[in-house]
Design brief:
The protein is α/β, with parallel strands linked by helices. About 50% of the residues lie in helices and about 10% in strands. The protein has 18 helices and 7 strands. The longest helix is centred in the last third of the chain and has 24 residues. The chain starts with a helix and ends with a strand.
């Protein structure tokens, strides 16, 4: 099943790559939309959408896909490519006293769900918690299984804090400080361990998989994240099928799966809209006033500064880039920024249809690699999207 699904997603991603590869932000600035000539009616329809309609479609991708199928025949297929969802018992409410100390609510839900996955199909007599942080996941695993946990973490302060908490709770946890990319990191792996990782980024989860295979660990359960955090300029496929697919993915394209967020609420959305409007308006001002011929990337700004308004943002941005601003109609350029923002949001509806398929392609590539190395592998979601959009888990058991 993993192989068939991987091949289907590969076909769709390659067939429609002009629709998802280029970032909508870049498209509204350049005016260059790669699929414009092959699907002009779709673009005309997108550009006619009101703000409220765009917002509605953002919240309901299946509705959007059903309408867009008139111009993109595979749109509904793209939105229905999924993996099984596994429901596990909710154990956060009955954790031993102090076990959830310091763990934020949503994080606790994620950890509880992933620990249930691990416990329900546990192999080995020990645990290895990779990129452990303060060892929140390890706490639950050691408490529920009464088996020792080795928690491997790069930051010494997190190791110290995690070890202190584990000792207070009398949990059999040992923190090891180290660099995941050093040769020494392989020494913490043993063939008695079930390796686990929640939201290990990019090359960190790739390294975990490689060490698991070399160490012949009985099982590994990981939830990948931040696929763009890699050392190479492009994604390096792991499986035979991944290499055969010849689907080159840049770091920018590897960010696409991360563009779905569910945290933060309306305040965060308003900040994002305002900041993107200001950036797009500032670019229009610079272009029209002859200050630049290409987009000028502006550094991050404190959210509190946005309250000072568009003109203040432009003066701040110009100062950051050593530009001298001429007299300008700031109301006019802010209005352009707002038009561009909603144009970007409309275009992002198209790219958004490929977000989950692309993430599944990356997960299935790793699953197929593990299969080729002698593991039985399942890919599924371990919690609802509302808890975290990064809810895919790769669960592999050595056969």
């Amino acid at each position: 099943m993993n192989r068939q699904q991987f091949q289907l997603i590969t076909r769709l991603l390659k067939q429609y790559q002009s629709y998802w590869r280029q970032d909508p932000f870049t498209q509204v600035i350049s005016g260059q939309i790669p699929w414009k000539s092959e699907n002009p009616e779709l673009l005309t329809w997108l550009q006619s959408l009101s703000r409220d309609t765009i917002s509605t479609y953002k919240k309901n991708p299946l509705l959007f896909a059903s309408i867009v199928s008139e111009w993109l025949p595979d749109s509904e297929l793209l939105c229905t490519i999924t993996v099984p969802h596994r429901l596990f018992k909710e154990n956060a409410a009955k954790l031993p006293r102090g076990l959830d100390s310091g763990i934020p609510g949503r994080k606790l839900q994620q950890i509880s769900s992933l620990s249930d996955v691990c416990i329900s199909d546990h192999h080995g007599s020990q645990w290895l918690e990779w990129c452990a942080g303060k060892g929140y996941l390890g706490r639950l695993l050691s408490s529920q299984s009464q088996q020792p946990v080795t928690s491997f973490e790069f930051q010494a302060t997190l190791c110290e804090s995690g070890q202190s908490d584990a000792d207070k709770l009398s949990l059999p946890m040992t923190f090891v400080q180290g660099d995941a990319f050093s040769e020494e990191s392989e020494h913490v792996f043993s063939h008695h361990q079930h390796a686990v990782a929640l939201h290990a980024c990019g090359d960190l989860h790739v390294t975990l998989i490689k060490h698991t295979v070399r160490g012949k660990l009985p099982a590994v359960t990981l939830s990948p994240c931040c696929y763009h955090l890699i050392h190479d300029t492009h994604y390096q496929p792991m499986s035979n099928e991944g290499h055969e697919a010849e689907l080159m993915l840049s770091k920018q394209e590897l960010r696409i799966p991360l563009q779905e967020t569910v945290t933060g609420g309306e305040r965060v959305k308003r900040h994002r809209e305002q900041e993107m409007t200001f950036r797009l308006g500032f670019d229009a001002l610079c272009t029209e006033m002859g200050l630049s011929q290409a987009y000028i990337p502006v550094p991050s700004i404190k959210k509190s500064q946005l309250a000072e308004g568009f003109e203040a943002f432009c003066r701040w941005a110009a100062n950051q880039k050593q530009l001298t601003l001429p007299e300008a109609d700031y109301v006019h350029f802010e209005r352009i920024g707002k038009v561009r923002y909603w144009g970007m949001e409309a275009l992002s509806l198209i790219q958004g249809m490929f977000r989950r398929p692309l993430e599944l392609w990356l997960a299935l590539d790793k699953a197929l690699y593990l299969q080729q190395q002698g593991y039985h592998v399942d890919v599924f979601t371990f919690c609802d999207t509302a808890i975290t959009p990064r809810n895919l888990v790769i669960h592999a058991v050595r056969t």
